[in-house]
Amino acid sequence: MRRRAGFKPPTAQNAGQEGGFFGGPTRPPGQQAKIARGPQRRKNADRWLAFIKRAAACVVVTLGIFAILRPRFIKKNGGADTQAAAEGLEFERVRAEEVIGLSSGVWRPEGPGEAAQAAPSAGEPDLSRAGDLAYLREKFYTVDSRTGMDPALFNAAEFEKTPLRVERSLKTPKILIFHTHSQEMFADSRDKSEGVIAVGEALSRELSRNYGLPCVHNTDSFDIVDGESRILGAYERMEPVIRRVLKENPSIEMVIDLHRDGLPPNAPPQTAVVGGRTCAKVMFFNGLCALKENGELRPLADLPNPYLKENLALSFRAEIKAGEMYPGFAKKVYLNSYRYSLHMLPKSLFVEVGSQHNTKEQAVNSAKPLAAVIAAAVS
Questions:
Q1: How does DSSP assign 279-336, residue by residue?
Q2: Same-domain status, 253 and 294
Q3: Scanning 12, 54, 274, 348, which has its CA 20 to 30 A from the CA of 365?
Q4: Which of 234, 263, 235, 264 is nearest to 354 (CA)?
Q5: What's the predicted TM-score (pTM) here?
Q6: pLDDT grade, residue 54 (50/70/90)?
Q7: CA dihedral sign, ordered 201, 207, 209, 214
């Protein structure tokens, strides 16, 4: 093809000078470059959008399968597996029972700008109503919706008669303190030594020095496996170790599994002033080894506790003493479905000290009044 003199083939660089490739409207060179890149950008955007849609669909399907299989898994697995499943799915902080128990006094906001407080213990029981479950529940207990109070187990007059004395000693250990969940921390904890274990150390010191109740404080981590946090199965890993400690120390008459509570993220720190010090509130806790199904209370045959009545008498006695000695220091006793760590000795106490919203200082301050309450309960 013959070209006229001075002819320049149209390019992206001279398109604006020559009036475009086909003589159309002229465009600045930069705009031509944007037009060239436009289709590729649209393709990339479409690819990302398709990827996001597929990922979202996978998440929805996975959640749907989990929602279908979770209740079957919990129902199918009996005994220790049932407790492990409950422990892993419901004992993470925030646990289901804190949410379920809001209307029962575990935690409830009182209004804009007002301090929220846990329901305090009610002090001395009216023994004329010792077998009245409605009265006992209102005054002393918060009951999880998955379980219920069996009249055969709850009678305040019987609790008062139950022998719970622990012999004082200057030499041999009388109480074992341990932590099934040793990694539970407070608002300003920096490591394990500043979490619930610090409270256990302070409680052990108080009981040993001031009340003639020498303690063994076990600080093993049952909720750590291969260096990683694993709550699932902690109770099963705890039991053989604690049974071995009890066998090695036959003088021990009482065990205390010391925990830190877990409350909703917007809950305030729950405190009480005792002896001029701000202390984290405490809560005694019982597992009833019974699950409510279709409105009926079904005993968990694979989670037996031969000491259930003694456990209940001890927590009730501690609740009464706390109300007498330090009003407002203890919340109501919490009743839940499973067995937890309360089946190894008749005098077994499960205690929650503070929550993730309390400071380490507030929790450690609680050790002194808690030791006094425990010592009074087993006198």
A1: EE-EEEEEE-SEEEETTEEEE-TTS--TTHHHHHHHHHHHHHHHHHHSTTSBBPEEEE
A2: yes
A3: 348
A4: 263
A5: 0.72
A6: confident
A7: negative
At 127 the pLDDT is 75
Q: Looking at residue 247, which CATH number applies to its domain? A: 3.40.630.40
* pLDDT of amino acid 47: 77
- The answer to whether residues 144 and 71 belong to one domain is no
In a domain, 21, yes or no: no
pLDDT digits (tens, 9 = 90+) for 294-320: 889 999 999 999 999 999 999 999 999
Classify residue 318 as left (phi > 0), alpha (psi -120 to 50) or beta.
Answer: alpha
152 versus 45: the higher-pLDDT residue is 152
| 85, part of any domain | no
Query: pLDDT-derived band of residue 5, with 50, 70 and 90 as boundaries?
Result: very low
In a domain, residue 86? The reply is no
Distance CA 213, CA 167 (A): 8
355 and 308 in one domain? yes
What's the CA gap between 12 and 342, in Å, rounded?
Answer: 82
For residues 50 and 232, which has the higher predicted lDDT (pLDDT)? 232
**Same-domain check for residues 180 and 277:** yes
Q: Report the domain count for the chain.
A: 2
d(CA 137, CA 367) in angstroms, rounded, equals 27
- 337 and 255 in a common domain: yes
How far is it, in rounded angstroms, from Cα 46 to Cα 43? 5
- For residue 70, give its domain range: 29-76
